[in-house]
Design goal:
Blueprint: H1 3-26, H2 36-48, E1 58-59, E2 66-72, E3 77-83, E4 92-93, E5 98-112, E6 120-124, E7 129-132, E8 139-155, E9 160-166, E10 172-178
Antiparallel strand pairs: 1-2, 2-3, 3-8, 4-9, 5-6, 5-7, 5-8, 9-10
The structure holds fe (ii) ion.
Amino acid sequence: MGVQSARREEEIVHHLHLVEGGIAGFVPAHSRVLTPTECEELAAQVVRDGLWDGVELTPTESQTRAYALLYEDERMEMWLLSWLPNHSTGFHDHGESNVGFCVAQGTLVEQQLRFAGAPGATTMAVGDTRAAGSDYIHCLEWETGTPALSVHVYSPPLAVVGQYRYDESGTLRRARQAGRDELTKD
Ligand SMILES: [Fe+2]
């Protein structure tokens, strides 16, 4: 290993320690599952304090998105997700988990399903947040930024998600999948 890469590795390790220490300081002290509002406030705090900045992102196997686990304990997990053109989660729910998220860089579009109408779409810019319970169904897509980045908190940790897709007959179906499997539009 060269001197430069050793130094870079030291920097990364040092930075991750800072991130971990910083985030742990904001996590609610109780031992319960976090409410949607607590998830939202925590994601917003991490974005406000730049605790995501410089974190190394791991590409997914399909190279469609990249992610980093920023923090986890028995009650919750926190992810930094990256978004590029054409990246979309498709419509999904979060199983039994409460959710809070905050845009850290660029803009995302959030869509929500409506009966007998086109999905509603809202642009979310840096600092915009959502708080949601297990009844929430949405789709997140890249809009601007290279990449766009967002911080997501799930409590309890995301064990299962439901991905919504049409089957061959045009009927809407919910596919149950593991929380750490990548969500995709198609
Ligand atoms: Fe989601």
